[in-house]
Amino acid sequence: MIILGFESSCDETGVAAVCTERGLLAHALHTQIAMHQEYGGVVPELASRDHIRRVIPLTRQVLEEAGIQMSDVGAVAYTAGPGLAGALLVGASVAQAFAWSRGLPAIGIHHLEGHLLSPMLADPRPEFPFIALLVSGGHTQLMRVDGVGRYELLGETLDDAAGEAFDKSAKLMGLGYPGGPALSRLAASGDASRFDLPRPMLHSGDLDFSFSGLKTAVLTRVKAAEQNGGLDEQTRADLAAATQAAIVEVLAAKSIRALKQTGLRRLVVAGGVGANQLLRAKLDAALKPLKARAYFPPLELCTDNGAMIAFAAAERVKAGLATLDASAHSFTVKPRWDLADIA
To answer: Which one, of 322, 207, 194, 182, lies nearest residue 257 by Cα?
Structure first.
């Protein structure tokens, strides 16, 4: 079965075609970064309008690149939540319209389940069970994954997520939007040892996270620098490096603790922060003594994308967890939706 998937939860419009037997056939993505840069962050109304403009051309592109017609599609999938309500409604409405017009089933997918399963699009793909570190946008969670739809929450952030810590710290340093990638690029030329920043909850003994204190510490360092002549470029780079090092150390330490507590030897890292090269290097080094392995999605699939949505739908179909009722086309979106609550 070929599944056409739509992702529109925030500021990326993604469309993809996945075959349950052959895997990913094609995917296309449009990012709204350039549009939102002027405002220093995502403007929900503008995001929704841009999804409307982009989704049909991207769909045509995917069908052409995959060498298929709409008549070849057996089901349609879309991100049902969590995310921005208006943005979610665009993808859901288009998906449902396609499904209704072709007499196909439509499958609503949890955005984080898409991220969680996306490393399985890489080669080699991880086998179940595994620990998943989800670091996407406002989410930082550790999950035990025993199979598709079988997820146990082990720990999560109590306040700011890792991605928010990157973005908010970058904003304090005067870096552009999106802040996380800008901070990581600047950190490459910095000295992380210059600033001693806190590692919140590093030794808490549990698997929860907290990054709001780190953001406050960054703010304190920025104000101190401004009072002493300003934040020069090298100081900014050193502070960026120290901030990145603090976030990565906490994420790595908690992930290792989760592996040790569960006895598992596979770690899946998914979400935008999963593209961070320091995190990848630190995890690879820390896992070797444990004879464990980390799995990451391809770099192009770390951010939001349609491939992960279509793939998650395909996996749910193969696991018998998707309702393939072609007559059911009433739908809702869930801007707030706990991954533990999916059926």
So the answer is: 207
Q: Cα dist. 137→125, 168, 258, 313 in Å?
A: 24, 12, 21, 21
pLDDT at site 343: 63
Over the chain, what is the mean pLDDT?
A: 95
Euclidean distance between CA atoms 241 and 335, whole angstroms: 33
Q: What pLDDT is recorded for position 303?
A: 92
| Nearest-angstrom CA–CA distance, 37 and 14 | 20
From first CA to last CA, the distance across the chain in angstroms is 22
pLDDT at 288: 94
The rounded percent of the chain whose pLDDT value lies above 70 is 100
What integer pLDDT is reported at residue 40 of this predicted model?
Answer: 86
Contacts of 251 (CB under 8 A, 6+ apart): 133, 135, 140, 162, 209, 273, 279
CA–CA gap between residue 23 and residue 311 (Å, rounded) = 8
pLDDT tens readout for residues 236-278: 999 999 999 999 999 999 999 999 999 999 999 999 999 999 9
Long-range pairs, 252-256, Cβ under 8 A, ≥24? 252/279, 252/282, 252/283, 252/286, 253/199, 253/202, 254/133, 254/142, 254/155, 254/207, 254/209, 255/131, 255/133, 255/142, 255/283, 256/286, 256/287, 256/290
